[in-house]
Amino acid sequence: MLNDAAKKLHVKIEIMSRIPNIKIFGRPADVSAMQDLVAKELKDIDKGIVEESHEMMLAKTVQWKYTDSEGNINKFEPSINKVSEAVCWREPPF
Fold this sequence. Notes:
The chain contains 3 helices and 4 strands; from the N terminus they run H-E-E-H-E-E-H. The protein is an alpha+beta fold.
């Protein structure tokens, strides 16, 4: 996604994986626009990591399960587990 955006904005982007470093080269207005896109992408990645971490921590303390048609007990996925727990503790609307 970032490489496609860089081409559209006519900037050069260097992503160094060994050290956390991103360099953007181009006209100031284009670099600024690309910087906003990079910041948004990093924020989305961070949000996903934090969300997954919360789901996994919750699953270690509370795990919702279901019985399938063959009688097997299965754990819900962490994201479903999180929603189930939230709904369980929600106060009734009346």
